[in-house]
Write a structure and sequence with these properties.
7-stranded parallel sheet; 9 helices; 7 strands; single chain
Length: 259
């Protein structure tokens, strides 16, 4: 599947993974709709698109508001007449300890990481069904297979179920649904460390999934071992991550990053 001339909406276009995905789509000749909160980071991504002469549209969007999501889709259709690709790259992190979160935190994480994705998918499905073509790629997490990050893991587990359900709903209609499940990569959500791979590794997986949809993709590949262990020996991971020492280290690092 060539991406030249395809219309792709990237939700969370101003984030680390979102911006890398936008760049990758531009390199493949796609027309990209940049959706994200109206801030300096979204302006920077738009300025980069302008500088390279890319075909794009900026639509400031808060995916916790249905009116914003509907406006995003409507403006895309007015400008380009179709939606070929939806990439859900918006998300926020949490602390490993559920007790560290406020009730407001819990609601916001669910609203963005799970309900926001559900809204955008819900909004594009009628268009893609009418076209009998399209690709939906959502960014989940290895934490959606191995529960270690509180409400964040819960939303990513939920996103996995959503993608499975939608994939089966549209299987006969020529619409691909793929979940990309990254481990730790270099984004503002994670503590800075030179050992983490750049977000381009996720963007490359997104492009590959658009061209050849599959159920899910884990990146970097080394995280597949942990997932295999979780599936085969869940009790072993209970012992590892249930260690008071491990929990203290995880929460200390998360609190330091958040502060």
């Amino acid at each position: 599947m060539t991406l030249h001339g395809r219309v792709a909406i990237v939700v969370g276009a101003s984030g680390g993974i979102g911006a890398a995905t936008v760049d990758a789509l531009f390199r493949d000749g796609a027309t990209v709709v940049l959706a994200g909160l109206e801030d300096e980071r979204l302006e920077e991504v738009a300025s980069a698109a302008e500088a390279r002469g890319a075909s794009y549209l900026v639509v400031p969007t808060d995916i916790t508001r249905r009116v914003d999501v509907d406006r995003l889709i409507a403006r895309t259709l007015v400008a380009f007449g179709r939606v070929d690709v939806l990439v859900n790259a918006a998300g926020i992190a949490t602390r490993p300890s559920l007790a560290d979160e406020s009730d407001t935190d819990l609601e916001r994480v669910v609203a963005i990481n799970l309900l926001g994705c559900a809204r955008t998918i819900h909004a594009v499905l009628p268009i893609m069904k009418a076209q009998r073509s399209g690709s939906i790629v959502s960014i989940g997490s290895v934490a959606g297979k191995i529960g270690i990050l509180g409400i964040y893991s819960a939303t990513k587990f939920g996103l996995r179920g959503l993608c499975d359900s939608v994939r089966r709903e549209v299987r006969s209609l020529g619409i691909g649904v793929t979940l990309i499940e990254p481990g730790f990569v270099q984004t503002p959500m994670n503590p800075p460390t030179p050992r983490l791979p750049p977000p381009d590794i996720v963007a490359d997986a997104v492009i590959s999934a658009i061209r050849r949809p599959r159920r899910s993709v884990i990146v970097p590949s080394r995280y597949r071992v942990a997932v295999m262990l979780e599936n085969a020996f869940p009790g072993a991971l209970d012992l590892i991550f249930g260690s008071a020492h491990i929990q203290e280290r995880m929460n200390r690092a998360a609190r330091a990053t958040r502060s």
